[in-house]
Amino acid sequence: MTNSSASEPFEAVAPYYDQLMQSIPYLWWMHYVETLLDYFDRPAQKVLDLCCGTGNLSELLALSGYEVVGVDRSAAMIEQARRKAEQHQSGVRYSVQDAAELDLGETFDSIISLFDSLNNIIEPERFAEALRRAYRHLNPDGIFIFDLNTEYAFVQKMFDQRLLEPSAPLRYRWRSQYDKESRLCTVQMEFWVREGEQERYFTETHLQRAYTESEVRAMLYAAGFAEVHLFDAYTLHPPDRRSDRVFYVGLR
């Protein structure tokens, strides 16, 4: 077995990210986003996929006829996304951008940020700035859709996962610890990847912050959004105390 030290989040894992996410129903997530777009009757031809990862959703959106730009702060993830765009000839434009420093020089009908990506911004000031940057990159009547893990999800240890079957080409173990005072969830991730006759071991540490619904609502209004709506994940119902994921919709 070969070993490597802990890496920056989403750097070492980038080449294996799609294996980790292979059970995610991306098409279903896209259809839910389209349900929200229809519900609010907002245009969405030109879409920014904020914190796009390796571009799985971006590529699906492009295949469905949207004009798509994808950004992510991880250069390693964007590298994977660009390979997909070239392979699919999708026309998706990808660039390395931090959500809290977003500066693209163009605007969009809709901005989406899915898979609890914005929970990874653990500083409230930078989180608020990311919302302001999103607002500035929207056209008039634009819409911003994103989801966040709730404190309930962290308390219930929903991040804890493992796949340790010896035959699996990628094995992993994730263990989380939530601190109620700081509202930070620390996820220690271990990975074992088979590479020929060798197995490589590496780790990553991810941090997510639990933001309250009232905090996020206030930040969205402060960013300039005219309306703010909250939904229990994948529904058109309001969230409740057992909601582990909440979708936020900001209308410009």
Structure summarized in a few sentences:
With 252 residues, the chain is an alpha/beta fold. 28% of the residues lie in helices and 34% in strands. It starts with a strand and ends with a strand.
Topology:
Layout: E1 2-3, H1 17-20, H2 26-40, E2 46-50, H3 56-63, E3 67-72, H4 75-88, E4 93-96, E5 108-113, H5 124-136, E6 138-149, H6 151-155, E7 161-163, E8 170-179, E9 184-195, E10 198-209, H7 213-223, E11 227-232, E12 245-251
Helix pairs in contact: 2-3, 5-7
Q: How many DSSP E strands?
A: 12
Percent helix, as a range, is: 25-40%
Element string (H = helix, E = strand): EHHEHEHEEHEHEEEEHEE
Profile the largest sheet. 7 strands, mixed
- Low-pLDDT ranges: none
Distance between the termini: 53 Å
The side-by-side strand order for the widest beta sheet comes to 4-3-2-5-6-12-11
Taking all Cα atoms into account, the compactness measure Rg is: 18 Å
What does this structure look like?
This protein has 252 residues and is α/β, with parallel strands linked by helices. It is 28% helix and 34% strand. The protein is built from 7 helices and 12 strands. Strands 4-3-2-5-6-12-11 form a 7-stranded mixed beta sheet, with helices on both faces. A 5-stranded mixed beta sheet has the order 1-10-9-8-7. Helix 5 packs across helix 7. The chain is globular, with a radius of gyration of 18 Å. The mean pLDDT is 94.
Keyword list:
single chain; 252 residues; alpha/beta; five-stranded mixed sheet; 7 helices; globular
